[in-house]
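New to this. Explain the following:
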Amino acid sequence: MLSRVADSMFWMARYIERTNGMMRLLRTSYISSQDEVKDFSWRPILNHYSDHPGTKAFEYNSSTEVLDHLLLDKE
């Protein structure tokens, strides 16, 4: 029983680490998108974190659409 709890805690900590890294990258990218509005593209982040980046017609410069997709979209 103790080994199962330890295993679950290990994987939960690992998932939290991965989420923390993703949130730091998204925060930094969002700040960059506000500084360089015309030259910024979310395409590399969508390619890395999204399952099917080409299926939805995103405006790669629209921060609100991209963040809604990455953070709130259940699909």
